Amino acid sequence: MGTTASQLGKDLLSEYQELTFLTKQEILLAHKRYSELLSKEDRNLTSVPMEKVLSLPELKSNPFRKRICHVFSTSDMKDGSLTFEDFLDLLSAFSDSATLEIKSHYAFRIFDFDDDGTLDGGDLEKLVNCLTGKTEDTRLTPEEMRQLISNILEESDIDKDGTVNLSEFQHVISRSPDFVRAKSLFCRTA
Amino acid sequence: MAYSVDFNLRPIMELELESLRGDDTAQDSMKGTGLESGSRETLEMEVLTTEGRDRLASQMSDVRERADERSEESIQTNLLVRKRWSTTTLRVLSSMPSRSIGQQSRLEIISQCNIRSTQLRRYHRQTQDVSLSSRPSIRGYGIEADSEDVCEEETKRQELVNNLQSLSAGDRVRLLRATPLSLAEKTKLRKLVFSDKVGQSLLSSQVPCCSLLKRALCHIWFGCLFILSSLQLWQVALKRLGGRFGTGVLSYFLFIRTLLLFNVFLFLINGLFLVLPQAIYPPLHTPSSHRVTGLELFTGTGYLSNSLMFYGYYTNSTINTSCRPDEATAGTGCGTTSDPHMMAYNIPLAYCFTIGITFFITGIVLVYSMSKSFGRSFRVFKSQGNMAIKVFCSWDFKVSKKMSVRMQSENITTQLKELLSEVKGGEEEKGRLSGMAVHLLAWSISLGSTFFCALGIHCFAKYMHLRRLEDAEGEVSVLHEARLLALPGVVSCGNLLLPGLFNLVSWMENFNSPIVRLYVSIFRNLLLKVSILGVLCYHWLGKIAAEPEQHGLQCWESFVGQELYRFLLVDFIFTALYTVFGEFIWKLGLLFTPLLPAVQILKLLLLFHMKKSSLLVNCQASRKPWRASQMSTLFISLLCFPSFLGAIVSVTYTILTIKPSSGCGPFRNLPFMFHSGKQWAQELKSTNHKLAWLNWVHHCLVENPLFLFLLAGVFLMVIYIHTQVLDGQRKTISLLQKQIENEGKDKKFLITSLQAIHEKRQYPLSPSSRPQGSEV
């Protein structure tokens, strides 16, 4: 599909422009960054391994970086490697012009650590641990964690089955006006 | 007692689960059993059924609830604890539609897309088909009757392709873009949709000419947007700031940029209609000798006082474009002309209308942006807590530096701990009386300091005027000119020091929540600014304007303009942060100093770069949490209410009640400034009968109170209708939530019954058979 070619074909470029939320400029920049990731490796590879993607400066310090790679990866081996189209998907979902629905869909999948389709207690605990950081003094005590999780479930679990599914998640998100703005990543990569 | 059956799969055998996840065919076959796709559609279906069924269903779930709580409760506990779930139950659980969305289930997403495209198509076509309209949402599911189709995904995909082909091009693009499928999938879909349109791009199919025009307009529009976006001011700088400090700090700089663009626009209007004509045809002035010292730029006196900057320069006559400058006589412009074909430009009228239109446009833009940002942050159903929102939404993905990420984590931890402690000890009322006393003390300190500051400024201003009169009798020297800067300096000092005092005072108070603390501090600061501005306006408009001769002024408008100019500069130097003050100053100053937007533009440019460099150098992100969208609503409403309304009130007061000075400016020799408009209306009636109806319209609509009354009445009615609609929506939301809860209970009941039945089959002679009576 021409992912490792030094230049994107014109019709491929316009196709990507139609199917993603990125502008032409952004797609070309993304291609450049992606090629840089591939430059040290064999040119015949069509996908970049996860470690290389995690070395991008925008993702390096992000606590959700591994989940992001797993969610956007379409490889059969489930190793988190990204093709160029996966990379474009990532940028498109995190761009400023993506719809709330897309962002909430992918945010849900990123937060679903065990990939079972709902956010249960374990997922929420891992999520809070990612948010609060790795150091000991910023983590919550087990007591606080328990209370936090039960409060979250009380607020967002409408059908009271002990987990938050996608619709409930989207319902919670729609109440926060900050969500769309905060869930934008590097769009005009410089 | 609320008993919740938890469908947490973790305590159950995970090995079985692993095998199930890899087992796609099992999942697909489960889907084929006709489970509805998505709990949302289930809900829709429920809503559509007749009332009788609803009542029955709720009664059934009620009965089940009671039964749960009474006898079967203990048995169910035992079930969960002792036995494992059977493979059937596990399979059903893991393939439940509400859970399969997250598992890259393409089928699920395609079904969703299908539904949406069908809805779009129906919306656009507006079919009159009766059979379609009976139960539209079920038909929209596309659930096949023959459900043991192994290639169900293929059929769904084909159906989606057909749906997409029947949509318009724009809708198709939008739908494809908004579908959360991977790019490879979307490419395949797109190829299928356009397989019969090989070689043509999306937007160039055979279309009628009106959509050709639309397409052309679209191209032009996108081209303009592209140019605009590439020219965006400070793009790189904003990206750096956002990456380092997050969305909250970024909103402040975006606000500055908005202000700057706004000022540029106003400057263009003023410049084109007011400054340029007067600059091309300058009035004759007697040349006065002024020594050029560098201080003029700060004080606005000297050679600047007879320049385009200030009110006094503008002539009160009509410029006629045919006459040449050397024929002009002083004060009367280029002489009268009786030739109707010559273009006449009436300066006083232009002055009036330009300032009026500027204020009007400012008002409209402010109200529009306020309503838009208020609409964005308004939520119909305010639920009780916000911990879920905090956990799900507070991570700012823009932040990329390691230090900032750590800071963000700390911030979030602090906020979560605060929220948790609030929830735990929220009802404690320890030391209520002492808390009240502290609050009272704090408020009295802040109000007292505000009052004394205003009083001090009032006395100081009076003293400075007396000194200036004395100075004016003597020789003009640099020291006398520098003294003009004393009053702005004192006011800016007050503006800077007193908010620090307010911070100290609020630190000793104990507020329930940080947002209350924020609003109290903003209110106190605002009160301080408003009182200072009130005192200054009283001085300028009440004292100086009323009796200009007492203060030794030929042209009081120019003097007030110069004072405002000085305030703007000194305010910038002292208090670069508090732009609200600056905004009021320049709006008021617009009447007296038409070129003030230019100064404001320069000030904002410098402010942006100063703040940016100081932030990047200090490299310390704020420890206080910022709620970006609410902050921007706050900024805009701060702009609107105190500064804009205050400026409008002052300007209206000036125009309507104060007598303009007789020696300078475009309104000299008129009793009041608005008389120029009245004069023009009279002229219009006598000279041009075709436009006389304008006068009549103005008389009927604006001066007639009945019309305004009716307008206010209609407005209030619209507000009332909207409130009622909101009320109804809130009631609907709470009813639907209850309904979803009941559905959840039904689901639990059915799953446990399924498990029970399976166990009965498996272990018919087991001692733990239920006492429900049925054996074997």
UniProtKB/TrEMBL annotation, chain A:
<protein>
    <submittedName>
        <fullName>Calcium and integrin binding 1 (calmyrin)</fullName>
    </submittedName>
</protein>
<dbReference type="GO" id="GO:0005509">
    <property type="term" value="F:calcium ion binding"/>
</dbReference>
<keyword id="KW-0106">Calcium</keyword>
<feature type="domain" description="EF-hand">
    <location>
        <begin position="99"/>
        <end position="134"/>
    </location>
</feature>
<dbReference type="InterPro" id="IPR011992">
    <property type="entry name" value="EF-hand-dom_pair"/>
</dbReference>
<feature type="domain" description="EF-hand">
    <location>
        <begin position="144"/>
        <end position="179"/>
    </location>
</feature>
<dbReference type="InterPro" id="IPR051433">
    <property type="entry name" value="CIBP"/>
</dbReference>
<dbReference type="Pfam" id="PF13499">
    <property type="entry name" value="EF-hand_7"/>
</dbReference>
<keyword id="KW-0460">Magnesium</keyword>
<dbReference type="InterPro" id="IPR018247">
    <property type="entry name" value="EF_Hand_1_Ca_BS"/>
</dbReference>
<keyword id="KW-0677">Repeat</keyword>
<dbReference type="GO" id="GO:0000287">
    <property type="term" value="F:magnesium ion binding"/>
</dbReference>
<dbReference type="InterPro" id="IPR002048">
    <property type="entry name" value="EF_hand_dom"/>
</dbReference>
<keyword id="KW-0479">Metal-binding</keyword>
From TrEMBL, chain B:
<keyword id="KW-0472">Membrane</keyword>
<feature type="domain" description="TMC">
    <location>
        <begin position="587"/>
        <end position="629"/>
    </location>
</feature>
<dbReference type="GO" id="GO:0005886">
    <property type="term" value="C:plasma membrane"/>
</dbReference>
<feature type="transmembrane region" description="Helical">
    <location>
        <begin position="522"/>
        <end position="541"/>
    </location>
</feature>
<feature type="transmembrane region" description="Helical">
    <location>
        <begin position="482"/>
        <end position="502"/>
    </location>
</feature>
<feature type="transmembrane region" description="Helical">
    <location>
        <begin position="349"/>
        <end position="370"/>
    </location>
</feature>
<feature type="transmembrane region" description="Helical">
    <location>
        <begin position="440"/>
        <end position="461"/>
    </location>
</feature>
<dbReference type="InterPro" id="IPR038900">
    <property type="entry name" value="TMC"/>
</dbReference>
<dbReference type="GO" id="GO:0008381">
    <property type="term" value="F:mechanosensitive monoatomic ion channel activity"/>
</dbReference>
<keyword id="KW-1133">Transmembrane helix</keyword>
<feature type="transmembrane region" description="Helical">
    <location>
        <begin position="592"/>
        <end position="610"/>
    </location>
</feature>
<feature type="transmembrane region" description="Helical">
    <location>
        <begin position="250"/>
        <end position="275"/>
    </location>
</feature>
<feature type="transmembrane region" description="Helical">
    <location>
        <begin position="706"/>
        <end position="723"/>
    </location>
</feature>
<keyword id="KW-0812">Transmembrane</keyword>
<feature type="region of interest" description="Disordered">
    <location>
        <begin position="20"/>
        <end position="42"/>
    </location>
</feature>
<feature type="transmembrane region" description="Helical">
    <location>
        <begin position="219"/>
        <end position="238"/>
    </location>
</feature>
<dbReference type="Pfam" id="PF07810">
    <property type="entry name" value="TMC"/>
</dbReference>
<protein>
    <recommendedName>
        <fullName>Transmembrane channel-like protein</fullName>
    </recommendedName>
</protein>
<comment type="similarity">
    <text>Belongs to the TMC family.</text>
</comment>
<dbReference type="InterPro" id="IPR012496">
    <property type="entry name" value="TMC_dom"/>
</dbReference>
<feature type="transmembrane region" description="Helical">
    <location>
        <begin position="631"/>
        <end position="656"/>
    </location>
</feature>
